[in-house]
Structure formats: C-alpha cells, structure tokens
Amino acid sequence: MKRLLDTYRRLTPDALLLFWLGVWWACNLLQAGLTELADDEAYYHMFAEGLAWGYFDHPPAVALLVRLGGTLLGGELGVRLCFTLLQPLYLWILWRLVRPADATRGDASLFAVVSAATLMLQLYGFIAVPDGPLMFTSALFLAALNALDRGQRPAWLWLGLTMAAMAYSKYHGALVVLFALAANPRLLRRPALYAGGGLALLLLVPHLVWQADHDWASFAYHLSGRNASFRWNYVAEFLLNMLAVFNPLFVPLYVRAWREVRPATAVGRALRWMPAAFVGFFLLSSLRGYVQPQWTIVASFGWVWLLFAYARRHPRTRRYVVRAGLVTVALVGLVRLEMIFNPLGLRFEVFDNRPAFGALAREAAGRPVIFGLRYARAAKYAFYTGGEAYCQPNVFYRTHHWQFRDDDTRFAGREVLVECTSAPADTTLRVRSLDLADGSRFTYFVDPDFRPVRRVAVACEGLPRQVAPGDSLRLVLTVDNPYDWPVVVGRDTELAMLFKQGRSRVEEYPLDVRFEAAAGGRERVELTFRVPEELAGGSFVAGFALRRDGYAHWFNSRPQPLTVSAL
C-alpha cells in the first residue's frame, strides 16, 4: 500500500488527471452494465439494427457506436460501451487545450473535481445517446480551431474532418461552429477555414443524399416539427434545468468567472462565449416549445474551463470548489446506486423493464406487438424480450424512425396484439388491459388478420394554401395501394382529412367516401370538403389519413401548409 501511495504522489499533473479519468471511466463502465436502458437508448438500439447514413431523429453516429459495442458485448453494457470511452477522451482533449504551462498536481485535481461535479457530465458519461459523440467531436473541433489559430498547415484538413464528424454526431454541432467563429471573427479571414468547410460538405454528401431520399425528414422535424404554442412553463422549466444540470452550488461562481476571465487564445474565447451562447439560444427556443436540458451540453466545456481558470487563481474559491465538488460527487454516487438497485422503489424508465416487458411477451405468446403510443417502448420490448414489435406513427404525438421500417408489412396476415390509442367500439369485449411491473398499463386488442394501410399513398389536387371558413373545396385524390391485398375504404377503414397545428392540436374530419383500392392498384376519388368554422384563424399542415378503429395513424399524404383566414 505504501508503495502505491508513493507512486500516486510521484504522478505528474497529466498522469494524475489520467488516473482520475480512469477511475471515472471504471465507474461509468460498471454503471453502464448494471443499469437498465432508458427509452431513447432502446430506440437507438433499434437504429443500430439497420445501419444507414441517416435516421429520422439523428445522424448515424449514435447507431454506429451502439452497433460496434453490441458486436463486442451483449446487453446494456454492449449498447453503452463505446459511449463510456468517449468521456475520458474528450475531457483529456479539453485539459490539453486549456492546461496552464505551469500546471501543478493541484491543478489537475481541481480540473477533475470541477468536471465530475458538473452534473450534466455524470449522466451523459455512460448512456448511449448522440450527446456523447457530439462532445467528443466538439473537443476535436476545438483542437482543430487551435491549430487554425496557430497557423498550422494541416488545420484545414482537421477542421473539415471534425466539422463533418460533429454533423454526423448531432445537428447541434452547427451551433458549436457558429458560436466558436462568432467569438473569433478574425478567423473568418483564414482561407483554411473555407477549405475545411468545403471538405466537410463533401464528406456529408452521403447523409444529405439519405435526407433527400427521405423528404428531408430530420431537418423538417428539428426545424419545425418540435414547435408548439408558447407556454411559460417551458421557459421556467428550462431555467430550472440549467440551474440543476450545471450544479447550483457553482452557478454564482460561473457568473463571476465569466466576467473576470479574459482568454488570450481562440479556444479560450470560444469556451468563454459558448455557455452564454448556448443558454441564450435555447432560452429563446423555449419560447416556441419544450427544450431538453442536454441540448446545451457542449456549454459544459465552457463552464468547466471558466470555473477551473478562475478557481486556480483564488485560493479561497479553490477550497470551496473542491469541497462543494466532493459533496456533489458523493451525492451523485448515491443517485448512481439508486439507478442500479432502486431501493426507493421509484417508477422510472430505467427500472423494471425486464419483468414489465416479460409479462407482455408472455401475453403475446409469440405474436407481434403493434405499439401505438410510445415509440421507445416498442424498441424496449424488442430489446428485453427478443419479440417482434412495431410502433405506428401517431398523429396526436409525432412521427419517428419506425416509419422507415417495414416490420408492419412483414406482420401482414398474422395475428397481432394492437395497443389501443383510442377507445374503440368494444361490442365484442375484445379490448383487454395488462398492468405491468413498471406501473404502466398496456391496453390492447387482438387482430386475427393484420393488414396495415400505412404505406398507402394519397396525393391531392386542388388543395390551396389559403382558405376561408365555409369554403367548399373540390378535391381530387389519387390513392396508390402498394400492398398485395385490397384496401376497402368505407368498411373497417375510413378516409379522414387532418389539420395539425404544432404538437398540441389535431382536427380530424371523416370523409363520406367509399371505394376499394385494389392490390397494387390506383384509385381516383373526387370529393367536396367544406372548411369548418372552428379552424378559423389557424395555420396548419393539412393532409389525409386512413383510419381504423383502435389503431394509431399518421398522414398517408404529404402534409402541406394551409392557412384558414379569420371569420
């Protein structure tokens, strides 16, 4: 033991930091293997089952890393393995970028404590989400920015590679580039910057081709699909989340450090401005919808550096930061134990997945399960049971990557369990409910001959971009049925016109039409639709959907903007 202590005391500042990063990584590794998957992690595991250049919600890096880890190991640890490796790497890169020339062992310890006490970095050090690769590639980008600032020749190459890597990790990487350059406008005069940008665009061509082939689904979703009506609680919740995830014990010091630390390098200026820029940008975003706290995660680099740079020059602040940081780490340790063992018996998405979905699998008895409410639960069911599952996009919530999978077609003609998304007319007492171990209830019916209609395409002629209440619209619909079975509208399936406003309002109007779209055939339908007065003064996306009692549904047509004038 004495020899080990002597060796520890002889460690250089860099070696000491590596030691503590190794300890943190070991803790994350244990956590990764002993904690059940969160909803999004299971969803991204579904991504990894079919590698592609893009996915509905995110670029492909998260799926690739899940696939790599899953190839080496199974279970939760396999899903998260690669993500646990990223955190010590990006913190080491950050340290090398901001390391004082006269750094001491105390400085290395201070940097480790500040990093570990930044609550955002604790959770996102082991879970399998796009934020991990974004942090790693952002650190690489900052290193490339440092090379550009110093006039190093290969800087354009590193810039191009790292900007492309950020884009393949998470679209928020564009904000990292924007804010870093805004803090260093003189770099805009460097030709190497534009050469790097050109290389990044070239490397992104496969992803852009995927987006074009899928109607730019990701961009449409992130730019407008998340929008909602203004609510004060969105703003308040965002501010409270920022207070929590960046450690309320340090918030006053962050403000003081931001005011007093004056960096002399391009990386320092970028790190100083990133926290204010990210928090300010997403504070404005909260005016039009809910903002998830991890969207500001790259600001952690700036907070860590600012607090470190300030505290190392002020002994009293250093002592407070170390003590408060160690208290934070101790409390985090208790939370981590709760996430593994759940002695408090909490109901949360990382608890009770095996017994809950195991009970559902026993009920399914080998039959596919069609989820209609929560897309991540379909992925969890498949992960924890190995059973067949699908989730139908739901017009009352949002669409998701399941729409690009054809599992529901594979289930055609089979007996399936269908999760009810509404209260179907239950004249035969076919609707049943199953209480699960995670506290949820799965309400379903059995369809003895499942026939999906999701891929039926409806094209519309004659729908203007602006209408008035009471207008009679003469519409011509072309219905293409790609399936090997006919779709009969007017029997167990009805055609409805949808008006969707943000995420909170959906108006549906059944259309009085009857027709049969033959297998592999095309049907032309003419109808008249009177614009309801309750739509007055609203801006919507409008389209058409095939609905079946009890099933979820989405647009079968391409939604188009439509404004209804006021009365």
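the 2nd protein, sequnce then structure:
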Amino acid sequence: MLIVRADLGDATPSAMRIAEGRIAAVGARLVPRAGEEVFDARGGAVLPGLHDHHIHLLALAAALDSLRCGPPQHHDAESLRAALRRAAAARPGAWLRGIGYHESVAGDIDRDWIDAVVDCVPVRIQHRSGRLWILNSRALAALGVGEGTHDTPLQRRAGRLTGRLYDADAWLRARIGGQWPDLRRASDALARRGVTGVSDAGVDNGPREHAHVAAQQACGRLQLDVLMMGSAALSAAHAAGGSQTRSPTVSQTDPQTDPQTDPQTDPQTDPQTDSQTDSQTDPQTGLRVGLPRGLQAAGQAAARADPPGAGGAGAAAPAPARARLRVGPTKLYLREIALPAFDALCAEIRCSHASGRAVAIHCVTLAELVFAAEALRAVAARPGDRIEHASLCTPQALGLLGALGVSVVTQPHFVFERGDAYLAELSAEEAGWLYRGRSFLAAGVALAAGSDAPYGEADPWRAMAAAVRRETRGGARIGAAEALSPQEALRLFLGDPWRPGTGTRTLAAGRRADLCVLDRPWAAMLADLAAVQVRLTLRGGEPIWTS
C-alpha cells in the first residue's frame, strides 16, 4: 500500500509505503508501483496508531449490549422509564441489562421501582460505581430467590428483599450464567478512533480471559493488539498460550469470572457512588485528602525496609513486533477502606517482580496513592511499574512519584465527564489536584492516559481535548494550571505500552505499520482534538477501519 498526500507533521505533502506489515519508505517522491494499492490521504495527518493504556475490554463489550441508565443519556426518572419499557418490548422474555445508573436520575431505586416500570422480563441494573446491582421481582424469580431464601447477599428492608445487591458479582455470576462476550463491536468502536492497541486493566484477568481474547483475535473479531494486565495466574497463560514471557507460574486462584456481570469493574473511578460506599474513602463522594491513621508510620517502615536483591528479573521483556496478545503487569487493586498490611503489599510486588512482571496499582484516593508509592519505594520500583488513575495527587505525592520513576496512567476525560460532581464535593484547592497533567510532567513523571472504558467514554480524542481544556460538562474549569498542550495530550496515547508515557512511537522506515489517517492536517487536528475523525486505521499494515 502507498499512502499519498499525507501530512506527517511538517506541513509538506509526503508519501508512505507499507510493505510486509511495516513502513518501508517515507518520502515526497514515492510513486505507485504496478498493482500497488494507493490511499489518498488528501492532506490528512498520519499518526502512529493510538494505544489506550487502561481499558476493560470484556466489560466494554458487555456494556455495548446493555442499556445506558444514567447521565448523560438519562437525567430524570421519566426518561429512564420510557427507555426501560422500549428495551423490554424489543427483547420479550430475555434478560434486560442496564448499566451506569446514578441516583440523580430517580433516587435510590429498588425492586419495587423497577417492577412498576417493567414486570414482564427479568431486569438487572448496575450502578455507575460498579458495586451495586438492582434486580426486579422477575429477576429474583429467575435466580430462584424468594422471600424465604436466606442464604443470599441481597439487601433486606423490614425483612423484605429490596432487590439491591452490593459487592456480590460472584454470587450473581454463579446463578445467572452467561456467555463470553463477542468483542467485535468493542474492537470496531476503538479502531474507528484510530486505536490499534489496548492495555486491558482487569484485576481478575486470568487464563480463561487470556484464552478468550486470544480466540477472538484468532477468528478476526478482535483486531487490536492487547497487553493484558491481571492476576498472577496470567503467568501460566504465557506458557500455555505462547505469548512472550520469561515468567514462571505464580500460584494464585483464578476467580470464576463472568464478563456479563462486569468482573472488570473499577468502582472507585466513579464520582458519585451508592449509599453503601464510605463517603470518606471514595473519591466520587469526597475524595478524602487526609491519610488514614498509621500510614505515616507505614511509610517510615518502608523507608527502613531492606531493598530486594539485585538479581530480579525486572519488568517483562517486550514481545516481538507481531505478537498480538502479551501479558503485562500484575494488577493490584487497593481500597482505602480495606488496605492490606503494608508488608503484604510489598510481598505481592516483590513476587510479581520475581516472576518477570511489573505491577499496576489501582490508586484513586490520596491514601491509596501514598500507600502504593511507599510500597514501591520499599521494594525498589522496576521499569514498567505503574500507578493507575492517581485521581487525587497532592504536591507531596507528586514528589514521591517523581522520585520513584514509575508511570502514571490517568483519565483526564473524567474532568469533563464527572467534573461537575467533583466540584460539588471538593474545595477549590482539592479540585486542582484532580487528574493532574502539567504537574506530573513537571515532576518528571512518565504520564499516559487510558479511557477506563466502559466506565469512561472510549474515545481518546475527547480525552486529549479534556486534558487541554480542563472543562466540565457544565463549562466550569478544573485545575486550569494542569492543562496540557495539544501535542502533550496526543503523546498520552502514543507511548510505549510496556512503559506508558515513554518512548513515543514514530513514523520512521522499518517501524511497524500501526497507523491512523485523519480527515484533517496536523494543524487543524491540534486546534480541535475533539472534532477529529479517522479515515483509515491500519494494524500491522492491514486495514481494521475505513470510514
């Protein structure tokens, strides 16, 4: 393939030849060869394919087949009622699955509320936090649950089942069953935005998730490259699936995951959670700034801890250029209300390092962030270690992260998507610490971004625009001093998947032909990132999206 009239960033029309999955040549004077396919870029910018550094593929696939039940699709009860009735009528007899509900729509809904709207089919609606399901009476009956059933985690009020189910996905999965999701729609939704690779951040990813993703790639339904984070059990998937590895198996039970119940949930990225969430520990209902008692002592202990031996394997070695599914860091999930023992966290990190895998630590509250940073300092952070979200970061925490040399993978679009809710809960100073950009770069932190889809919009261009504008849906600005330039925002999605925020990929000859061609030149792209449309996406030289 020859791409002609392309803007490669220097405002000079150029051409690019693609052969055997790589960029074979770049130059203004390239001419088509006999029989060579020619794509006219019409002056549009050509970029390396984007990489979403934090996404939940299986949950995204499930979400695409679900009814959106909260903002921005629905802002009032009547709108939601109408949508539920339409959806139930369109699928008579089948389960109706809703996602993204928030109390601002219709309050604390329960079984009776749903029954009054839809009583002809089983309905389950997931709260936006990911921690709560609300089921109607038909759903309870389908699960074999009645008022006389007592071995159930379902909430009761005055002795009667409310249909509300907290933090019990495993219980629900065991009863509802379900099929592994088809990843075609998720793949297409990302490819149309110029994404050629993703890092799946599911904490429960194990051999079965690895096998399903590999199978979807093999049959062509998933056309993206995947770096899969997850449990220690993924080390076994390396050997079994033939993915690049040098890690021995680390024994860990692989949870029984059903993608249809969102096992990849990342609940603490939601700005407003249900009433069961501790408002002092959830960033969405308060973003606690103070640290839990005893944390400073833990940090001091970390500083005294003996460093690990020098012979560790370090971060996993990059896979060959054509590897499509690779096993990435071990995902460690912290919750401020139930932090592990400090020594236990350090031991988990050391174990992952010894197996040849870096760690990716979920940190939303400030307490989680400092706790993780002190643990990484205690064990000596390795290349590839990363912090997920870093939603709230004080100047002191910035210093810790800068000294560690770890990557931070953040979600600047949450300033837009959820910023108005944050402003209602935070002081002006605290709001300035949300999803920082400029300060991370100034502190020398390797900064990258991911959509966190389906818990955020799966559109990297809107995330870039949010990183530049720092505006909420309501038009308020949050942390204006944290704004990035358009070029810096673009680089959030162009870094090395193994070490996010580093090694910006380029369009040099010999590089793998993971590319996206835009509908406008570089200057117009940088002027309005949110408006960008992708005309062509290539992965390994093969088209995976054409407009």
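The domain at 66-176 is CATH 3.10.310.70 (Diaminopimelate Epimerase; Chain A, domain 1). Residues 77-90 form the longest helix (14 residues).
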